[in-house]
Request: fold
Amino acid sequence: MRAIMQRLYEKLEDRLREIQSESFPLLKETSQCINVCQETLQELRKMVEKNQLKDSKEEIEFFKEIKPKFYSQFIYYVKVFHIEINRPAASDKVQISYLESHLNRIKHFFDNNLDFYQYYRSGATHFDEVYFIRGQEDVRLLPDDLTLSIDHSFSTTQSYKVSKLFAYELLRIYLNTAISSIQLTDPPEPKNIEKKLQWTGAKVSLIELIYSLQTAGVINNGTADIKLLTNFFERTFQVDLGNVYNVFQEMRIRKKNRSSFLDQLKERLIQRMDEADEDY
Reply:
């Protein structure tokens, strides 16, 4: 069943990218993404109801690893929608202060859940049967806003919190980018760039390269942010990369091949050097 759920998640990713590629106004785009997430969660629930989780191992895997991937997308888009619909139409200073207040809330959430965050990220398992098995609910472990409303047939004490961790990591990137877009003017059009250059590889590969360059700090002494680099590469290679922050989040939570494009580049470069050595 895991393979079927993975295909369902890939379908969700495709539908979200399709919406983002349409260049809708932000609130309309976000609203449509919320609807798609809701529909997919309903499909996921029906799938679980039809094919019952057979044992505790499968139940832990579902509520610890699988469901949070789906639900975090829903939480993220709901948060973005509410942030943007309430965003003040005011000066840059006021808008930055508003966005920073949401960043502070995220920091507060991570600070308050540091032990659980470290438990999850370290790959620990000793509390899994308490955290990710239905029927083990302890209201002291539930977020205040979820204590009364949680659906115990499709949730566990901490599966919601894992989803929130994923969503807030993505939301933090979104807020920092929104602040940077206010602080920085659009970069000038690059000059003397060959207009015929076009990216013909996978978009996710270019996004992986952009994040690698930004992380390494090799452009503008590390001061160039993701938005700046994305704009440059999109214009240079005549490609629309869509929401690079979502793609990075998906790359980050991969279990394997998190840097598949960079690994491929290294392998091919070494192969070329070896071939050149043989010719020499």
Summary: Residues 2-183 form one domain. DSSP finds eleven helices and no strands in the chain. The chain has two domains: 2-183, 203-279. Confidence is low (pLDDT under 50) at residues 144-149.
